[in-house]
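Sequence in, structure out. First:
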Amino acid sequence: MRHLLLHVGHGKTGSSYLQSSLALSQEGLDEIGLCYPFHRSFDAARRGFVTSGNREILWSAIETSDPEALFGPHDTALISGEQLHRELLPRKDAFFAFVNNAQITKVSLLLFIRDPVEDACSGYQQAVKRGGYTGTIEDFFSQYERPKTVSDFLEAFTDKPATATTVRNYSRSSDVLGDLETFLGNVALTMPPIDRINRRLTPAELAIQSSFNKHLGPSGNLVADKLCTELPDVCAEVTAPSEDVQRAMLDRNRDVIMAVNRRIDADQHYSFDTIEPASDESLSLTLEQIQVIAKSLAPKIRMR
């Protein structure tokens, strides 16, 4: 009887932190009969860097019809990937065909969600940091539609035979690692080496990275990644647009937000709360931040 556990995201809900813990716990999980298949990103994950999990192993196993790539010698396997909630939707038929052919008798899905305004603010940061985004936060809010993807995923995967979906709201959770441990059957996982992985950028860091994006294209590896990994304890206020912009986004997504809420436990519901924008819009950098930026850019400049 094979049991497949999938941590399916979504983004900006502590995925890199959880994947760091899982990579550090791989041997311990193997000892209790739970296979967390090796991925080349595990070394970076163990050091507390931003990673994307091992979801590629799932797609490779499906393409090659090779369940052993997931389970190894065990009957239980775990895959983690923050994009799985999106990637599974167009491939659900292939996924369930694989489940049947591989004689997987149970599929458990763990999806973390996040309150929409909070998620959109964090998503804007990530788009600038990792996606090369150059638009304003107001532009980003006008395009934000993650609740629709979540609603579509829950409609497609909830109440399927031998499939159980657990939804946890990151905005409500004080212990995402504990949520994952519970999902795995109260398994104890190793704590990552740092408390915050992939922290928020400060307004000045965000402005610098956005400017690099405009002139160089996606270039988060030059500045944002280095700032987050070398100065993980820098605290940054949430960057938020005006309350009018936030309300407009919530109103536009209201129907799908309510559709999600109808499918999940009341204590995990999306909220319609807004965030007060920072009153001080001045930009400043510490000497440490300047040194990290200079250290990162110097080799690139020297090569020219």
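Second:
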Amino acid sequence: MAQNEVTVNTSRFQTRLTVSRFFRWWLAELTALLPSGFRKLMQHQDKWLVMDINDSRILLTECRDGQERDLGEYQLDQGGDLSDKGLSILHSAQNKAETELVIRLSRAQFMTRTLTLSSKVEENLREVLGYEMEQETPFRAEQVYYDHQIVKRLSQQQQIEVQVVFVPRARIEQLVQRVREWGGWPAVVTVAEERGEKVGRCHVSELNLLPQEQRLVSGDSRNVMNRLFTVSAIILALITLLFPMLWQRVTINDLEQRIETVREEAETVQSMQEKIDTLRSESGLLLEKKHQYPPVIEILNELTRLLPNDTWLERFNLKGTHVNIHGFSTDASALIELIDNSSLFRDVAFDSPIIRD
């Protein structure tokens, strides 16, 4: 199958993304001022092209205006490329106005952990999860793409249960690059969730593993502008008719509510800020203390490299900066010099006499 090279202008995509997000925010703010009847008429429906990836198969689903349309299932060839028919369907569906491309990974392609944390860390939850990544997973935070969602709040214990979903960085980057070579630009990389009988393939998780700077909303922004101008005209007409009657009442009610709540809110914010500053200070101290010592995996790797094939360990003990090993060797006396020559160890000595077995 012939392959086409696709050159991606990142700055152009980023500019389109920024403009599109601004217009969506502005449209949402203006629409909120309309009566409920007008809001229903102007309500925006999510328009997704969902790409389910499972082993060597791609399943495409179009979700527009609440309707689900199956676009077919396509096998990848031995080189991992999509067939000509699959490429045609992908290009046709994504080129429709305001369609966001969603890549959904199967359960075998991602890992998940559920953590119980203090509710005080919620405002800085992603930063805290980055610190916890090395403790709870075999990866460091910079080695994975991850996202989280709060699954339960334990009010009495002042705790939250957080589900963390993570995928090795290289796997996501390779997958996104392949989709871009097919001519797509993903806005979301999410994961499969349990779906009930009445929930179809258009049910998309709120989790998004893709970094913010790599997300792109595809489609023609002119439709957004048209809706924006329409809503603006309606709002201006309503303001002209209703402003003199409503403005005074709205202003008085708003000021009364603000006066009642602003003092308590200010005190609460100040208290929470002090707790956040304390938590950040403690987290930084723990992280600094952790980095003072080499990781356990490096110590085990160095011992594995140093010890000869005729040496076996039956016990390994690490306490602070002191390592104690116990086992069998045909030449135990030679181990002192071998280990002492390593840059990770010093002051190597026997803790007890050598016993011949």
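Remark: Confidence is low (pLDDT under 50) at residues 1-14, 38-45, 217-223.
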